[in-house]
Design goal:
With 555 residues, the chain is mainly α. The chain contains 17 helices and 4 strands. It has a domain of 365 residues: Glycosyltransferase (Alpha/alpha barrel).
Length: 555
């Protein structure tokens, strides 16, 4: 073997070893696209050098001569030889053959028949307010979202700031129970969110197993979140101790959340929205308005709300931010939120794998349960906000749940297909089953609840992510298991809240599992969401059989 080939082989072998070591050590997990692009350039330069040394730099013919000469054989070509060049006609998107091929592919991939373009998303319900209410349009911000200066409404509508139940109204403030709040200009709050404010909140709190202590903890957590918001409207991951997470069971890469501001901002907004405040009414309406403006101003043309998040955190951030946008739209009925919400939901639909029904880091990934949960919640909240065309995505999502399920009744769930089930993924999958319409009496639900009852919250091993999904799933499943989980949650979570009177008062320290990724905002928001569970959603089969009600909101 010539010496040059030995050198080439050694260089290639060393390169392969280095790439393997870098991948195993997590080198690609920070700025992966840039690093992969750089590595691709190096590899192509190496291959070009090798090929040039073998074949020389003289160009070779790419097409045979008229007599079928071998490619690159110039000697057989005469002076009159003609090279035949293939001309490809531009493909038309309406070409029958192309369309038939796409239909055949989708028929093979989807379990529920040929895939079709989803129908247009429906407009938010209720319709826009009368012209008199919007005769002055808000100026547009650079990112395309309404600019909030002194106004707190995204559509320049009148606002009503309501105090939490039991607190006296501020001077000059309308009471949420006043006749003005239920006049003809009011529109219904969706049933699923109807217990978030007023007397119904107190009733739901009692029926679900909450207490004065849990509500005091919620209000303290929300007060810290309001103080932690930046002037630009976001909650910054790096400022509050995030972006330094470690790898856990190979599920999320190290250092992938340093620029996940849109994601943690979505969580903070969800916690504030969970108490009934919107950008139009409530004690923290201006905070919500600034947060929504931050998110919508940074929405990309393709609908993504991931902001500047890196690859491994991007779809998480998009899901959390879209969920906040959907809840705000459903609670307020503000038509200014319709267009950004539709674009965001379309991005979620485009990222779903057409065959497996899952979501992961990018379109085409087969899916994992951790990403899956946030996107399923997006579908559920988008429907509540009045959007349509989501049925196929839901059917595919149910198929993905089956692919990661195991156990006697299929109630346990793994991170990915073929892996062992875990408590966290079982809790997340169980919540998804219930929000996708599985009845609480289903054997799979009972099996999932049984696993959660053997892994109750313990303050010695805090895990905000598992506790959040476990609380959500247990509450909606209902029954005696909910009472056991709820008691354990309160005993474990309430003592972890900071009460030192300093700048961190009301917040929760990041847990040692995922807390390093999202920081203090992530930990505090998930804790508040867990303690709002009693009234955040009307229970589907759950504790006390809370009545489905409709309340009024101010337009």
């Amino acid at each position: 073997m010539p010496m040059q080939w030995v050198v080439v082989a050694l260089v290639a072998l060393l390169g392969i070893v280095w790439v393997g070591a870098a991948a195993k050590g997590g080198w690609f997990e920070s700025q992966p696209l840039r690093k992969c692009a750089g590595l691709s350039i190096v590899v192509h330069l190496f291959l070009a050098t090798v090929l040039a040394s073998v074949g020389g730099l003289r160009p070779h013919r790419l097409f045979p001569g008229p007599a079928g000469d071998a490619v690159g054989d110039d000697s057989a070509l005469g002076d009159d030889a003609t090279l035949f060049v293939m001309e490809l006609a531009p493909a038309s998107p309406f070409d029958d053959g192309v369309r038939d091929g796409i239909a055949l592919r989708d028929t093979m991939l989807a379990d529920d028949g040929p895939a079709a373009d989803p129908p247009p998303l429906l407009a938010l319900d209720p319709p826009p307010p009368p012209a008199a209410a919007v005769d002055q349009q808000a100026p547009e911000a650079p990112g395309g979202s309404p600019l909030l200066d002194d106004a707190v409404s995204l559509s320049s509508s009148p606002t009503l700031e309501a105090q939490p139940p039991g607190l006296p109204a501020r001077s000059g403030q309308e009471s949420p129970s006043s006749p003005e709040a239920t006049a003809s200009d009011s529109v219904p709050v969706p049933d699923v969110y109807a217990s978030r404010t007023g007397p119904r909140q107190a009733a739901a709190l009692q029926a679900g197993g909450g207490s004065a202590d849990t509500e005091k903890a919620v209000q303290a957590a929300l007060a810290w979140l309001v103080r932690a918001q930046s002037e630009e409207g976001q909650w910054e991951v790096a400022r509050h101790g995030g972006g330094i997470g470690k790898r856990v069971d190979g599920e999320h890469p190290q250092g992938a959340s340093g620029r996940a501001d849109c994601g943690v901002s979505g969580l903070a907004l969800l916690a504030i929205l969970g108490s009934g405040t919107t950008h139009r009414e409530g004690p923290h309406s201006r905070t919500v308005a600034r947060g929504l403006t931050f998110l919508t101003a940074r929405q990309r043309a393709d609908g993504s709300l991931a902001g500047e998040a890196e690859f491994f955190a991007a779809l998480y951030c998009h899901g959390m931010a879209t969920l906040a946008l959907a809840e705000a739209a459903a609670l307020s009925g503000d038509p200014a939120l319709r267009a950004p919400l539709e674009r965001a939901v379309q991005y979620t639909l485009s990222a779903q794998h057409p065959a497996t029904g899952g979501w992961r880091y990018a379109a085409g990934d087969r899916g994992d349960t951790s990403q899956f949960g946030w996107q399923v919640m997006v579908l559920s909240s988008a429907k509540t906000a009045g959007l349509g065309g989501l049925e196929m995505a839901e059917r595919r999502a149910r198929g993905f749940l089956q692919s990661v399920s195991s156990g006697r009744s299929g109630g346990l769930a793994a991170y990915r297909t073929g892996e062992r089930p875990t408590v966290a993924m079982t809790a997340e999958a169980l919540a998804c089953r219930l929000f996708l319409g599985t009845p609480a009496s289903d054997p799979a639900v009972a099996e999932g609840v049984e696993l959660l009852s053997r892994a109750l919250p313990d303050s010695r091993a805090p895990n905000a992510y598992t506790w959040y999904y476990g609380t959500l799933a247990s509450f909606h499943a209902g029954g005696p298991a909910w009472e056991r989980w709820n008691n354990a949650l309160q005993a474990a979570l309430l003592p972890l809240q900071r009460h030192d009177g300093g700048p961190l008062d009301g917040s929760f320290d990041p847990d040692p599992v995922w807390g390093g990724h999202g920081g203090r905002v992530y930990a505090t928001a998930l804790a508040a969401l867990s303690l709002e569970v009693y009234y955040r959603h009307t229970p589907q089969g759950g504790p006390g059989g809370a009545a489905r009600v409709t309340v009024a909101r101010r337009r």
